[in-house]
Design a protein that fits this description.
5 strands; alpha+beta; rod-shaped; 5-stranded antiparallel sheet
Length: about 190
Amino acid sequence: MKRIGLLVYILIITALTVLVALFFWQFNIKISANKILEQKKNQLESAYSASKHLKELDVQKEGLKQRKEKLCRRLPVGEKKPLDLIKTLMRLGSRIGLRNIVFNVKESDPGSQAERSSSDIFPEGGRQQVSAQPKAGVTPLYFTMSFNGSFTQLLDFMKETASMERIVDIEEVKIKRDENILPYQKIS
């Protein structure tokens, strides 16, 4: 009987030892799983915040793209001849009532002294513009515009030109009175 009691005692101790070992093993697995779960939660949160930031960056990118397009309309890059600007100014001048509108366009190549006169396109010739050095990487396109109009038409034209989307720098305005075309003046 003592042997059976000793055998039962050893089995119970072995079973308890195995159960305690299994408990600690499972407890260790649970702690490791909790750590991994916490790490994955942190990664998920950082990915979510990065996703929000990415959406914000996309919105900023679209805003910058629209701003760039607007700036390109204001200062076209790589334009050699301001034909769109001349068309716009012609429409504006016609709408205001200016007469005999003539343009004289200077080639934009700084090494070239050749002038292209609008007399090929328009019936009258115009004056030549004195060129200056480009500022801040922007290559200016020089041309002169001559027309007949009243002083109020000139003011309206200047006001409309200032409110255009495209940037226009008017360097000089000359008004010449001609009795043959009164009440209008020659303006260039």
